[in-house]
Amino acid sequence: MSTTAVSTPRTEFFQKLKRVCVPLNQLAVRSQDKTADAKEILQHVESLTELWSTQASQDDSILDDRLADYVFVPLSQVLRDRDQYPMRVVEGVIRLLRELIQHGWKVKTSAALFRQLLILLSFTIGGVPGQERKKDVPEETIIEGFKTLGALITSVDPARLKRSEIPGEDSIPALGHSVTVMIDAVTEDLPSLIQLEAVACLRAVFISTRDNSVLAQFLPGTVSGLGKRLSPPLERQTQKRVLVACLEALQLVFVNVLGDLKVRGLLRQLETATPAAEETKSEGDSESRDIELTPSWLKATAAQVKIALSAVLKLRSNESEEVQRALYRLCIALLDECHASLADSQSILVETALMLQEDDAAQSRLETSLQDLVSIYPELSNGIKSALYSWVAGLPRMMQSSNEKTKQLAIRSILRGSKLGVAMQMDSSTLDDSLADSLRDSIITLMKASKPPKVIDDLGAVDLSQPTALIRSGYTELATYSPVILGSEGQKATRNELGSLISQIGPSSLQVKLATSMLSYVRDSDEPTTQIASFWLAFQLLKSSYAQSADMDELFDFSALGETQQQDEAFQELYDFSTSVLASRSDSVEPPPWQLEALALEVTAYYATRLEEDFRPELIDVLYPVTTFLGSEKPQLRRHAITTLNILASSCGYGSVSELIVDNADYMLDSVSLRLNTFDISPASTRVLTMMIRLTGPKLVPFLEDTVQAVFAALDNYHGYPVFVEGLFDVLGEVVTQGVKSDVLLLAGGDSEPAVDHKKRGYRPQGVEGILETVGKHLARVEGSKSRAEEPFRPVPRKAWGPGREKRKEKSFVEELEAAEDDDDDEEEEKKEMEEEKEAVQTPTYQLLTRILTLTQHYLTSPTPTLRKSLLDLITTVTPALSQSEDAFLPLVNVIWPVLTTRLHDPEPFVAIAAAKALGGLCKGAGDFLGTRLRSVWGEKGQGLRAWMIKVKAEAMGQKKRTSNNGRGLIGGGGGGGGGNRSEGGGIMIPTSTASTGLLSSSIGTGGLLNLDFGSGPTTSPDNGGMKMVSSSSYTTPSGAGRFSQSTRLWEAAVGLVRDVVSYVKVEDEMFDEILELVVDVLPGQKELKDAMETVNGDAVWLGLYERGLLRGLEVKQPVMEGFGFVRVEVGGR
After folding, report:
1. Region annotation Disordered: residue ranges (predicted)?
2. Amino acid 942: pLDDT
3. How much is the pTM?
4. Which of 347, 589, 718, 814 has the fewest Cβ atoms within 10 Å of its own Cβ atom?
5. Do 926 and 1031 meet the contact criterion of CB atoms below 8 Å apart?
């Protein structure tokens, strides 16, 4: 029963095969037209393949060699005429053969069948040797052929892969041809899938073949083919997965053929045999057709393998991590399993493995590492030392390469070699000495080859007055330096590798030793590049040394060994050199290279981070030099200076740079004053002072008295140098800008006077309450005069009544009469005391601003327009602050007034605009004090303010001033003849001016019977009974010139000056009429000017607008009276 049960599935499966195999065989044997029957044959073949593969996946126990032979019978008929069938049929047959080999014949393939299939597959893939292909073979067919060939070699009995002495039974020649086909597929430019299958077949050959002599026969061609694919230039055109497969196959070939276990007998013979015996034996075996494995063969093969490896190992520069990892495994495998047989190749294998060695964290502990091999084979340490020394010596040469990857690999190799040397405790004083020189020369080479990066100056957006973020907080925008050397983006990876090498080059003692050797070049070198390279290298080494020491100090105390002392001495020497570089910036004619100064800034900042608040005494020497770099022409130095100031502030315990500078302002100001007093006219002093004042704000201004005095002295000595004078006034301008922001600007002691508001206000009716209040005040004055009349007569005191008099000792009336004779002698002394008391009220800031404003009068005639403009802006800025005290401000106005008014006629329009703004500011601060002065300069013939405004207006409007004639008023430019306006329908004349003076006199008011309604203009003035302005298109606008032209902007400044004059200064009627005549055209578009003029004389403004036709028609309200009727009157506007 069990036999029947077992045979039933097999019988069923056989019947299925039979139903397909019989028609296939008949069709293959009897077919006359192979091409016509190819489709049907292909269907049968695919059916067989599906049946076989399905059964193999379900239950392959019923599949055996007999069923495979049965299926192979029709296939052999097809294969016999394969050249007459399409390649798709051949491909289907090959695919079915692979299924038969894997699940049918397995290891029971006969020798004859094995040879036949080898020849068949090899000819199908590579063609018949010596004959041209009749048709192209598709890639899919080649892939199926290699897969079937690999399955055939893998599943065959290893006995079939040995040399046979029986004629016709030797399969090695056929296998050799197959290996040749595989090697050709690897070396030719075929798709990667074909190459991968060919490499897999090669692996199968060297795994399945147990006869070492047979493998030795295949070794040269295999190594040559794989080496060709793995060497330039083919390796650049090969996919990385093909390279990895070839490296793994090459490793398998070397280990299976030349492994120490495989050739251990030859190695013993090689150690004991004499050279003569080896030569005799080699000559005696030369006639044999096989390769005889002899010591001579092993020696010759090892030499050839070294040549092949030298080409293959160039893959270490490949960028793929998978390729590098596979190459590293190859080197480790050959050093381990072919240690004796390939002893000649140990040096290049050790060098490559050292270059490709991964970090301890990335490497698996289950894999053998180079460090493990050094422990097993101590002689490998000599190879490591030799490789490391050659790398160190050749590093400067490698840095000359244009390939950044090559540079990075060279640096990374030295790092890995030094780390392995430290781990294996391989000390070498010669290597240490050469390492320092090599690093310095390499950095010099990189600096000479690198191009300076393009730096964009974007520091204007940095607000240094804000509190800085501490370095420990992780905010690094203003606490991280940009690279000094190798700053381009393309060199970033090389710079990082170089930094890693320096930081991990060895123990802390070695880093200090190397840094100390660099200090002599830092001090004494005359070559700037050498000095910069040595400086940078020494600083980086010492930083790394401190970092390592900090980690070790947490566990151990090494102070007794003296290493800490050597470390501190080396850094102190480096810091002293840095301070000398910073201090020499303003003293030397030619400043040092900016890289040297930037490194000095970095050293200073790093020293501050180490000492923290203990660094504060050092600020006396370094703070001012560091601040001078804020005015450097190099954006890199300015950014370095900003970063350094932030680090200094955070390290020394200050919340911001402003606090740092304010707290140390005394000796910084002394340094600036000293340089000014010693005729140091470099721009650094003024720039530092300007930026320092800007950083600190109003808090520093009270300390600037001596410095401002030094600036005044410098102005006296160098007034003939416009550029330097402009720089000095930039300082004074910054003092003014910050001083006016002070909240303690005036009146530090004594009684303060309230600020006077000079703005004019229109008349407002008092009403009943106002009248009652006025009557009450009058009655109080009457009562007071009566009470004073009843008092006894007393002589008028001759001493001033002022603040503090009540504190003196009171005297009787008789004593005062006796002292009256001495009053004349004491009068001058009393005046001095009052002046001193009055001066004591002003703060130092106010006094500084006063002196600066007084000084500007002497330089407003400077030939430099920009200086004149900056001085006028300074006056505009300081005027509101100084005007709070009229007693001190008005004398200043009197001093600067003459020279300021002349600037209105400046040939540069932007200077005249600034002068107009400055005069407007004086009008706001001085008020009616300028009334007579304005009147005197208003009507000056040809040069008066009125003539200047007429000229400016004519230029802005694109036309000359129109003369007034025919008895018209000065504002009558827009009306008709006769000096008035005539209504179109009513014929009523409205007077506009007096008969002959041309001045606006009593204008029509808004009361009485006239109810004025001026339409719906855009702007309404509530002070004129509902009067409305017309649209902007109805009055004159600048023509011919753009809105932003110089003439238009100058006219706008003139209008602003007039607005300030009318708003804050009392003007006479005649001057007001002339002003109105000038600006009446633009009043509809100047609301502030219109409101100011209406405050002074609203009726005149209304009449001027009406005369120019800038108002809508008047609607006269008809009176209503019982028993009477009135005629309707309408007055048409223009």
Report:
1. 781-843, 959-986
2. 64
3. 0.66
4. 589
5. no
